[in-house]
């Protein structure tokens, strides 16, 4: 029996994707991995125009445990050598000048927590924290991030311990579908610092009175979180979750599990 | 997005040199508007020079006022002690604009260089003289609910979107710019942005390659009585239908000095000079505010869908002046009309 290269286990989604591509060979691939002749068969069954995409897809599927550098795209125009910190670890990569920070996080660094909602700076789903400020990663060019410090939703927890804002969103059911949640939480975490600095908002009673560490009313929380849209309309629960972390006393939870479900 | 060259400038001369030498190069500040316009294919620069690392991020007290750096962010500016204390009108206006995330990214220089949000400008399948000179104005006889009521031309009826700029117009700010060969000049804020005329492709009077380096705020006595009122279709994170920056100096109840600037009504921040002149020496009363506003709005030229802006602007001027008289304290005047269910 010939030696097979070691390949990572496939998830169900990956199996399905492969099965769709090459149904006849599926069982063999799963047991023995992709061999040269499978790639040759791809040449035969696909037009050359789509070949590159298929190859790239396979490479992505199999590259899960490989170093990130190996996922570099095949064609980069106006490449920028970038070095910056993401969730505490230094990342060095070459990006197309057109790459946004959001696409870099998701497509190059496998940090898919930050979401692409509108991709035009209107929804807040892509919110991350850069140098302690919440920003929109969809309107930030990666090329502008040299030497910066980026924190995404993946970087908030400490080991298995959730960030208090994450725990509070769960306690208060601050989401339904969850798509806007990473942006909401990153935004809310940065908001806590802004409140501690005494920053003002449009609904602050008197901008001339500057005091350290202000107490945010619900109206203030709503105004300051207005850059994060939630289509499920979980706003009242999001405000509760933020108020709990911001305030010094627990906020009552407005829901509970039905008997027997846990 | 189309391909472009990118570099981070380490000094202004280099940045200005690169942009001046290439007619399709642009400075990149926070990118909150330009990057979006590039995604939409509305703007197609072949080269970008990042300017946020230039040494223009300071806010400093000067003998004749305060200087705010062009690369300081909107958030930093709105929350700076000097601005909050001496120019609360500017803080209020900045905080009325966009969202916290965008204000954290946007620079002061970039704010003054942002483009209109006219939907015809954004839609590359539509005619627009601002985007593509000579193609016509889709909004003139199209959907023009959000468009200008003052100063427009047959070529363009777009409005200028910035809130910050409306306050700067009221405060008689001066914009400092730098060009090639270290040439520096100052532009009075009233002359910075322009009306569309026959060249709506030019939003302002900067030459290509000129970089905004700082904005000077002259000393004034308006801090006690100033207010920025923004009227929009939802209560936050929306562009103004009408906004008003109002500031007063009174002796007893007699108006000694007054500044009124409007947003959402023209191709540039609109100083309501007629209303201002009308009010000097008069009593600060609601009746006088209404009369002054009416005098200003008499010259309005609304389009098919934005006649509502004439009445709305008149009421907004009156309310903003009343807000300023009450010390610019948010909610002082809305307290009766809004529910107070927050705790």
TrEMBL record, chain A:
<keyword id="KW-0479">Metal-binding</keyword>
<dbReference type="InterPro" id="IPR052914">
    <property type="entry name" value="Aldehyde_Oxdr_Iron-Sulfur"/>
</dbReference>
<dbReference type="GO" id="GO:0042597">
    <property type="term" value="C:periplasmic space"/>
</dbReference>
<dbReference type="GO" id="GO:0051537">
    <property type="term" value="F:2 iron, 2 sulfur cluster binding"/>
</dbReference>
<dbReference type="Pfam" id="PF01799">
    <property type="entry name" value="Fer2_2"/>
</dbReference>
<keyword id="KW-0001">2Fe-2S</keyword>
<dbReference type="InterPro" id="IPR036884">
    <property type="entry name" value="2Fe-2S-bd_dom_sf"/>
</dbReference>
<dbReference type="InterPro" id="IPR001041">
    <property type="entry name" value="2Fe-2S_ferredoxin-type"/>
</dbReference>
<dbReference type="GO" id="GO:0016903">
    <property type="term" value="F:oxidoreductase activity, acting on the aldehyde or oxo group of donors"/>
</dbReference>
<dbReference type="InterPro" id="IPR012675">
    <property type="entry name" value="Beta-grasp_dom_sf"/>
</dbReference>
<keyword id="KW-0408">Iron</keyword>
<dbReference type="GO" id="GO:0046872">
    <property type="term" value="F:metal ion binding"/>
</dbReference>
<dbReference type="Pfam" id="PF00111">
    <property type="entry name" value="Fer2"/>
</dbReference>
<dbReference type="InterPro" id="IPR006058">
    <property type="entry name" value="2Fe2S_fd_BS"/>
</dbReference>
<keyword id="KW-0411">Iron-sulfur</keyword>
<keyword id="KW-0560">Oxidoreductase</keyword>
<feature type="domain" description="2Fe-2S ferredoxin-type">
    <location>
        <begin position="80"/>
        <end position="156"/>
    </location>
</feature>
<dbReference type="InterPro" id="IPR036010">
    <property type="entry name" value="2Fe-2S_ferredoxin-like_sf"/>
</dbReference>
<protein>
    <submittedName>
        <fullName>Aldehyde dehydrogenase iron-sulfur subunit</fullName>
    </submittedName>
</protein>
<dbReference type="InterPro" id="IPR002888">
    <property type="entry name" value="2Fe-2S-bd"/>
</dbReference>
TrEMBL record, chain B:
<dbReference type="InterPro" id="IPR005107">
    <property type="entry name" value="CO_DH_flav_C"/>
</dbReference>
<protein>
    <submittedName>
        <fullName>FAD-binding molybdopterin dehydrogenase</fullName>
    </submittedName>
</protein>
<dbReference type="InterPro" id="IPR036318">
    <property type="entry name" value="FAD-bd_PCMH-like_sf"/>
</dbReference>
<dbReference type="InterPro" id="IPR002346">
    <property type="entry name" value="Mopterin_DH_FAD-bd"/>
</dbReference>
<dbReference type="InterPro" id="IPR016166">
    <property type="entry name" value="FAD-bd_PCMH"/>
</dbReference>
<keyword id="KW-0285">Flavoprotein</keyword>
<dbReference type="Pfam" id="PF03450">
    <property type="entry name" value="CO_deh_flav_C"/>
</dbReference>
<feature type="domain" description="FAD-binding PCMH-type">
    <location>
        <begin position="1"/>
        <end position="222"/>
    </location>
</feature>
<dbReference type="InterPro" id="IPR036683">
    <property type="entry name" value="CO_DH_flav_C_dom_sf"/>
</dbReference>
<dbReference type="InterPro" id="IPR051312">
    <property type="entry name" value="Diverse_Substr_Oxidored"/>
</dbReference>
<dbReference type="Pfam" id="PF00941">
    <property type="entry name" value="FAD_binding_5"/>
</dbReference>
<dbReference type="GO" id="GO:0016491">
    <property type="term" value="F:oxidoreductase activity"/>
</dbReference>
<dbReference type="GO" id="GO:0071949">
    <property type="term" value="F:FAD binding"/>
</dbReference>
<dbReference type="InterPro" id="IPR016169">
    <property type="entry name" value="FAD-bd_PCMH_sub2"/>
</dbReference>
<dbReference type="InterPro" id="IPR016167">
    <property type="entry name" value="FAD-bd_PCMH_sub1"/>
</dbReference>
<keyword id="KW-0274">FAD</keyword>
